[in-house]
Amino acid sequence: MIDPARFVAHLGEQGVSFYTGVPDSLLKSLNSQILAELPRERHVIAANEGAAVGIAIGHHLRTGRPAAVYLQNSGFGNLVNPLLSLADPDVYGVPMLVIVGWRGQVGVKDEPQHVKQGRVMAPLLDALELPWAVLPKDPADAERCVKEAVATAVERSCPYLLMVEKGSFAEPAVTAPAPAGAGLPSREEALVALVEAVGDDPVIVSTTGMLSRELFALRAQSGNDPGRDFLTVGGMGHASSIALGLAMREPDREVWCFDGDGALLMHLGSLAVIADHAPASYFHVVFNNGVHDSVGGQPTSIGVIDTAAAARALGYRYAASTADPAELPAQLAALRAHGGPSLLELRVRPGNRPDLGRPSRTPAQSKRAFMAALAAPERRAAGPGEDPPRADPA
Ligand SMILES: Cc1ncc(C[n+]2csc(CCOP(=O)(O)OP(=O)(O)O)c2C)c(N)n1
Question: How high does pLDDT run on average in the chain?
Fold first, then answer.
């Protein structure tokens, strides 16, 4: 295994001393090392993977040096646009080292949302016509690989991609300070109270990561599952847009998006579009723990904004904030009284219980059940010119 401290030191020796990216569970040790060791001038946790490439380009324009960009391969699609239309040697030609955590690698058991992305990684990388390699787990081989990667990136003025397999990095010797949150409820406690206050009739679209797993576990435990939860297991940052598409075709039923602060920031522009198009039945709750909790607790930039004020400034009809689950019935009454699109920031502490399970149904099974529940006969008939709702026969 690779010692993350040595990895960072070795990259420094190759002239790479600036890091930016979106954290990943496979890169957790490296992310912790960078967080603990580097000053803020040398490390930026970006809103999304494409933005990280942008930051790396800016860094190079002023320093002439390559930056390191890190991400999980789930975010590969976000990165491809600026990589190919800006950094590529056919455009500006910007050297950088792109370190990609390889979830869903063939032969390694992983969640359904990672399987296809993992399986097609090699052909996708080949199609980019950029140099890439799998980072060896042996420390000496890893150093040789990194040296060669940086030299190639600089020589050819291009991004070089390094794929990192599960279990490549050892635990770091240093630890970043634990994120704050004392006195706040856990995400799961807040979720239980929120689900109770939302009630059984609405549709719920929950965000990527632990929150969806906690919602699934809550339904399984309580035995009360109205069947109208959509778990956004991949596509981080898009739960609010899924909820928008739904709400526009479901104006007589409340649609609630349960979001995370990292996911909210990842595609914050969607809020303006939601404000512009969502019906009054659209409600948005952001579980704000200040970190990317699901992949190791690395901070987001949510702390610099007033989330409720930002939602109002982006056009939401009403927005408020609370850290008290007991206040939820009153807070939700206020949201409902104002009508949507409205947002509630729910401040919670980082962390989850260690024995949290994972959804036992496949995403395709969940989708069919969800569509069938929405199309259930007690619902209104399709309006003129509308397709009747139907479950996917696949
Ligand atoms: C596009 C994309 N980038 C990165 C990831 C990896 N990832 C999964 S959950 C998560 C953190 C989510 O943070 P937040 O929305 O704040 O929710 P929390 O985990 O704190 O509850 C990340 C980075 C992903 N799934 N998709």
Answer: 94
Which of 220, 27, 234 lies closest to 112, judged by CA? 234
Where in the chain are the domains? 4-164, 187-374
pLDDT-derived band at 179, boundaries 50, 70, 90: confident
The residues lining ligand 1, judged by C-beta closer than 6 Å to any ligand atom, are 22-24, 72, 74-75, 78, 187, 207-211, 236, 260-263, 287, 289, 291-295, 300
In this structure, is the dihedral angle defined by the CA atoms of residues 238, 88, 66 and 68, taken in order, positive or negative? positive
CA distance 299 to 35: 9
For 341, list phi and psi in degrees, rounded to 5: -70, 125
Evaluate if pTM is beyond 0.90. yes
State which H helix or E strand residue 282 sits in. strand 282-288
Rounded distance, CA 287 to CA 259, Å?
6
CATH of domain 4-164: 3.40.50.970
Q: Which residue's CA is minimally distant from atom 13 of ligand 1?
A: 292
Can 4-164 and 187-374 be said to share one CATH topology? yes
Q: How far apart are CA 242 and CA 257, in angstroms?
A: 9
Domain 187-374 of CATH type 3.40.50.970:
yes
Instruction: Give me the helices (H) in 45-98, please.
Output: 49-63, 76-82
Nearest CA to ligand 1 atom 18: 293
Ligand 1 centroid – CA 287 distance (Å) = 12
Residue 378 Cα to ligand 1 midpoint, Å, equals 36
